[in-house]
Design goal:
heterodimer; A: alpha/beta; Rossmann fold; Alpha-Beta Plaits; B: mainly alpha; two-stranded antiparallel ribbon; 76% helix
Chain lengths: 315, 255
Amino acid sequence: MLPLASHPMNQAQLRCTHLTKRFGDNLVVDDLSFELQPGECLGVIGPNGAGKTTTFRMCLGLTAPDSGSVDVFGLSMPQDALAIKERLGVVSQFDSLDPDFSCAENLMVYGRYFGMRKSDIQSRIPTLLEFAALSHKANAKPGELSGGMKRRLSLARSLINNPSLLLLDEPTTGLDPQARHLMWERLQQLLQQGKSILLTTHFMDEAERLCDRLLVVDHGRKIAEGKPRDLIAEHLEPDVVEVYGGNTQALSQGDLRAHAQRIEVSGDTVFFYTQTAQPLLQALMAYPGVRSLHRPANLEDLFLKLTGRQIREEG
Amino acid sequence: MRLRFWPVFLRNFLVWKKLLIPSLIANIAEPLMWLVAFGYGLGALVGDVNLSGEKVPYIVFLASGSICMSAMNAATFEALYSAFSRMHMQKTWDGIMNAPVRLDDVLLAEMLWAAFKALFTVTAILLVMLGLGIVHSWKLLMAWPILLGAGVVFSCMALIFNALAKGYDFFTYYFTLFLTPMMFLSGIFFPLDTLPDMVRWIANALPLTQAVALVRPLFLDQWPSNVLLHVGILTAYGAGSWMIALHLTRKRFKQ
């Protein structure tokens, strides 16, 4: 076994330092640095093609960075990949469950890849299936499971070696609200057990709910980092009024401007970002026929402010 | 020291166990149908084959060649279609590599697994041949390791094309342009000395020809000649193909 930490003061579970990766002329990850502390949940958010998955793959040693380094548990990737993976749990974006095996067999077969003894794996299977809310499906094959069940089986599979760090790539993409909530509940449980989680996601409510800290990435670069609430307070006005159904030109250029710090037009909707919404809502009375929604600023506003509203072609 | 390829090999074995019956039919029934139809049917027309001065019944001639072809086909199918399903379609390899198992271990497991399937197939066919009384020499025991070796060589070769494939259609090239011509040029269905010199030189360099040269005498209760040469050529094919397959597979997974 390799020594655990070369620097005793160095507590980070995962540390990426000046990571850079090119595919041809395309700079996919550009000087990205971040750390994950023990017990922390760090969320990586960014539009499609922002470099999230490439970063994820570099953390797993599957893609070699052009420059920069990845350290996990104080060991370096990819040189110490095997020692690191002994203590790592991974759920990748697409399920790689074995379609020919039942849920219980999937866990058994996967445990063997860690060199675990059959009896040790056997004793963990009921707990893991219960954790995944799949006890009643122990003998069902993945093809008979719903999308949410498959994701939970993938999560259970990643826990077979009792890892202290989990890397989850879009763990709830494609799931219905019930399945997502159950997944969140399980991830919260894991955090309470003291596990650390690195998670990529497209869902701002997921990021806000689960993550202690967020890393906003675009075009391979880190564009913001911090606690979700702090980021919102730092970058945005507290209130948002969305206005639909009027002449966007008149609404955004007219007298309403006085009541908002920032105005954005997207399609037929005008977004007013403001410190106090009341004067604006009063003034809107003068515009009959428009509909409006008043709400607090959220992470999605932050995300759109930082990364823009245009649709990304790639990814 | 942990053999990291072993749980991957075991995984393939456990899936195969579940699908044993259809797998048996595909791997064994078809080669046997060929043997019976051509061996007895065509054998009645052909009579004996003249093999360097010795008269050999056609069915024995065919049986000793087609067992090598079965080893080749079984290993090739497994290392192309099945390995590609696991690597590309099901993403089984990706899942495995999230655990402490290297790509090289996965590839080694796939190679050995395809060779094992070849061994299993030829064992079953040999048993049927013994049952039908086509062969009876105890020297056949020596055919076993040779056919396993042939399975290793052909699975290494197939894994090169597995590493290059974008889809299943790609394998048609390998079968049509390489395996099928080789099948006809390796002395399985007819002796090579009927061929023009030029073609015979090519035929003598093919891996399947080496396997046939080693296995056929055992069927005739004789020891093969030039053993080191044939084993050497087979080993060169196997080792060379393995290096290329490993290199190309690593390259494929670099992205």
